[in-house]
Task: inverse folding
């Protein structure tokens, strides 16, 4: 078998950011891969040092559009710890509510993208249409569909009214009904199973070794979830299950995310029932006393980590952001090895990358000395055709 | 027993193994322990914490510019609590040993230290730079306090907000 | 105008094909652009199709502040698009750098590198704004072809 080296780089038809994977192929099988990042580097950490703590909320939110609340909450927890601020319980509850709504929107988004990568476009349209319900809830609560800006140092900026509570609960009921269909689809539909089972294998010990986090790790039976391990906000008062699966593959990741949706609906109901009376923010002085703090947060993709160092002025000395996908992409190279070229889009999409994208894929066949150019969409079509030849056809659904 | 029983145990265990090289050991609050150790003992410390103390997850490595010293904070967890280890290295000749032998996932974190701070990581396998673009000057390190955008791009108009 | 040209203009206006390119965005605008293709906003009923390759696209929809790493790539992709081509800068970051203006790794708005036909501000843009922008662009196209 001849060896081919393919670079996958930055340009994708459906969302995604720039990343470059280099794959070494033998025939259809991948024998080696490396990951190259850096296309998305904007210099946020340096910019954060030039802005005040309050302005930094706006900046940190825009590290990622899908999990923006995760980043601000994680960052603000550090700052409030340094300022020794006692955030009111109502504010923590509202933050948790937005956090779970964000998790729902993110997992539904992922479900659609996974469907798209498989060739199951109807699932993409269904799940994104249902996702509009969550975006309506978020817009009602915060004023924007993306980048909610609900956090401020010392609490939240907007309150929840009884009217909004009713509307959120009715939309959640609708989504619970729809999610029953997605659970059935994910666990029983043979075409979906054929594309996801035994694909992108990540054994338990490798997941631990490479520091995988979030649903990627939980699908390999790693019982890790910051909401349970080190509860923050009001998670210690909520009753929910830690979802894990033991199949170590893309199927496991799909199941974990869909079941987490169900848990999130439960939690949203509990939070709305629990909402305690009280103020929504405390005043915090602009200058923060010197010190260092770290905080962790379970973003939809996994453990988000922030470090803040203050030096007594109103600007931070150092801010460090480590997003969950950074910890997960180490595992991607392992997952791709031994797999097929046709499965590449599925495997990369399964870690729910908040940073994935593909360039032109250049395939060099050493034996025949020919070079072929593949784009991500060509690879996606290649995957769909490869499986169609083996009887797995979504166009009949 | 104080309310920080678990944290006290961590402190005792580390001091028993490493003794006086550990300095500035602080229990900031529940689940947060901070201390400093000389740079050359880092790989040994990492191995000890991973195999003997159940701290198997390296969350990230944060570089910093402390004036006459550069350095890195290693944030390790057993998923419940966070231990941060600080290691300093002189600005004139910054070096840190690699921890990829213990935590293979640390490769990008160490490349960041090399690219953004200019700290040479001894033992790190060679590879493409991260996260700066390919055409960024190799001898400039943006996250150092004395660096400004105009150092690398002198022809561009000065930015509206620069780090002081 | 000859019949052949009229037909070509009509097909361009009635079914513009777009290419989406992310120059280091936070994904906020990207998911709103993709949202414009989903059932609630449904751009596809206007004949808009998302194409993966620049060689088939009429309009390049760009989001994100231009990171330095992407400067070469965006130029190359722009050159690969066949004439006539248009560029839609979506989001405050693509228009002017947005919150990342001044960062060392960012070149600010994309108009520093390629010509932009229409700017759609917003952080992130609303899907309705994307549709509005597309319609305005087509209107301007039609108006300029009548001259």
Result:
């Amino acid at each position: 078998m001849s060896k081919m080296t393919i670079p996958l780089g930055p340009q994708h038809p459906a969302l995604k950011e720039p990343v470059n994977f280099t794959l070494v192929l033998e025939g259809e099988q991948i024998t080696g891969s490396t990951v190259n990042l850096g296309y998305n580097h904007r210099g946020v950490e340096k910019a954060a040092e030039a802005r005040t703590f309050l302005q930094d909320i706006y900046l940190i939110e825009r590290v990622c559009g899908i999990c923006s609340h995760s980043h601000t909450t994680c960052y603000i927890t550090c700052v409030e710890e340094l300022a020794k601020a006692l955030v009111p319980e109502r504010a923590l509850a509202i933050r948790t509510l937005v956090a779970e709504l964000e998790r729902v929107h993110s997992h539904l988004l992922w479900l659609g993208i996974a469907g798209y990568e498989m060739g199951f476009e109807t699932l993409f349209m269904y799940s994104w249409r249902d996702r509009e319900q969550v975006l309506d809830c978020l817009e009602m609560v915060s004023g924007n569909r993306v980048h909610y800006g609900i956090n401020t140092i010392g609490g939240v900026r907007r309150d929840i009214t009884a009217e909004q509570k009713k509307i959120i609960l009715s939309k959640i009921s609708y989504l619970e009904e729809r999610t029953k269909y997605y659970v059935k689809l994910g666990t029983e539909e043979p075409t979906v199973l054929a594309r996801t089972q035994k694909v992108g294998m990540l054994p338990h010990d490798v997941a631990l070794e490479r520091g995988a986090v979030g649903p990627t790790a939980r699908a390999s039976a790693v019982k890790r979830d910051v909401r349970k391990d080190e509860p923050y906000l009001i998670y210690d008062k909520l009753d929910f299950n830690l979802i894990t699966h033991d199949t170590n593959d893309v199927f496991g990741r799909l199941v974990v995310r869909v079941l987490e949706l169900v848990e999130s609906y439960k939690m949203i109901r509990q939070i709305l029932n629990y909402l305690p009376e009280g103020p929504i923010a405390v005043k915090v002085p602009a200058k923060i006393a010197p010190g260092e703090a770290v905080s962790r947060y379970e973003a939809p993709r996994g453990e988000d980590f922030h470090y803040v160092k203050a030096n007594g002025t109103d600007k931070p000395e150092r801010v460090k952001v480590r997003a969950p996908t950074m910890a997960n992409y180490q595992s991607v190279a392992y997952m791709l090895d031994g797999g097929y070229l046709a499965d590449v889009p599925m495997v990369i999409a399964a870690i729910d990358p908040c940073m994935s994208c593909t360039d032109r894929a250049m395939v060099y066949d050493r034996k025949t000395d020919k070079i072929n150019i593949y784009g991500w969409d060509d690879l996606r079509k290649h995957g769909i055709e490869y499986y169609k030849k083996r009887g797995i056809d979504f166009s009949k659904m | 027993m104080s309310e920080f029983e678990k944290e006290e145990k961590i402190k005792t265990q580390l001091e028993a193994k490493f003794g006086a090289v550990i300095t500035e050991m602080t229990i900031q609050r529940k689940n947060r322990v901070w201390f400093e150790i000389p740079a050359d003992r880092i790989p040994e410390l990492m191995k000890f914490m991973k195999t003997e103390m159940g701290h198997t997850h390296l969350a990230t490595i944060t570089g910093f510019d402390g004036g006459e010293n550069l350095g890195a904070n290693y944030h390790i967890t057993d998923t419940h609590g966070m231990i941060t280890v600080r290691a300093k290295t002189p600005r004139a000749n910054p070096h840190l040993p690699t921890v990829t032998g213990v935590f293979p996932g640390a490769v990008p974190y160490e490349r960041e230290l090399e690219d953004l701070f200019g700290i040479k990581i001894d033992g790190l396998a060679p590879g493409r730079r991260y996260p700066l673009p390919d055409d960024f000057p190799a001898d400039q390190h943006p996250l150092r306090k004395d660096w400004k955008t105009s150092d690398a791009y002198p022809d561009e108009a000065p930015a509206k907000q620069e780090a002081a | 105008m000859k019949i052949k040209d009229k037909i070509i203009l009509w097909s361009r206006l009635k079914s513009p094909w777009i290419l989406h390119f992310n120059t280091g965005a936070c994904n906020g605008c990207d998911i709103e652009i993709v949202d414009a293709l989903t059932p609630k906003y449904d751009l596809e009923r206007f004949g808009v199709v998302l194409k993966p390759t620049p060689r088939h696209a009429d309009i390049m929809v760009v989001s994100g502040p231009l990171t330095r790493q992407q400067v070469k790539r965006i130029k190359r992709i722009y050159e690969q698009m066949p004439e006539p081509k248009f560029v839609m800068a979506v989001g405050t970051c693509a228009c002017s750098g947005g919150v990342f203006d001044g960062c060392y790794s960012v070149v600010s708005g994309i108009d520093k590198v390629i010509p932009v036909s229409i700017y759609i501000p917003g952080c992130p843009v609303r899907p309705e704004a994307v549709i509005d922008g597309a319609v305005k662009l087509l209107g301007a196209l039609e108006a300029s072809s009548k001259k």
User: Anything to note?
Assistant: Chain C has five helices and five strands. Helices of chain C lie at 3-14, 28-35, 68-80, 92-96, 127-146.
